[in-house]
Specification:
single chain, 267 residues, mainly beta, 9-stranded mixed sheet, 5-stranded mixed sheet, 22 strands, globular
Amino acid sequence: MKNLLKNATLGIMLLVLAASCDSENSNTPQGKTQVNIYMVDAPADYDEVWVEVLAVKLLLKGEKEENDAAWININQQSENQKINLLSLVGNNDVFLGGVEVPSGEISQIRLVLGSDNYIIQNGKKIELKTPSAQQSGLKLKISQKLQPGVDHDLVLDFDAGKSIVKAGNSGQYILKPVIRVIAEGSAGIQGIVLPLNADPIILGIVGQDTVSTFTDENGYFKLRGLKAGNYIVVINPKVPYEQLVISPVQTTLGETKTISTVNLSTK
């Protein structure tokens, strides 16, 4: 009996010590969660795509979206952040900001854009007409549980190609953002495509879903926010290089699959 009590006491002491160590190693208090917001881009056929991000807000589950006081403001790096979306490729992303919130679950993210949005095409600056509805913010649905004392990273994947619409023959371009939210724990595919002047678009296809990106100045690409499954990876380069299809590429949640370096051939 004495040995049993002794072992039980030792076990309790070890549990208390472990909990103490975990608390000391965490920068976020228990019952709170640090949420960080980043932005990346999908490809578009322009030289540059500039957007003005005025604010990013979070809404916790159970709160009403019409209640402005319920939205939690992300602490941005600057009040007015201009971003060239086409620079956000490979491992390049932009940190929009972070905030400590009560642990629970995020139901929505609101991205508020300004009116100073434009593209550069063939060296010419073209203003993007921005609907007034964007002044109240783009509401992005998400269901992300927040574990107490753990930092959570969320990535806004801004699809520049799908977000810019040419208005008939008027010559005007309209910004209608298409954004998906990538939560941590998702899968990814990365690799290098050569030669550098092939400038390929990379597609990851599973079922009816397609995710795209392009390579950076070093030929590196990364497809983020994927679900687990067997993907078809399509590499669409510029002429005279030939398209290449790699299949299957199996992905696992929480891991990034690296494919072998691709050397494209000419037609």
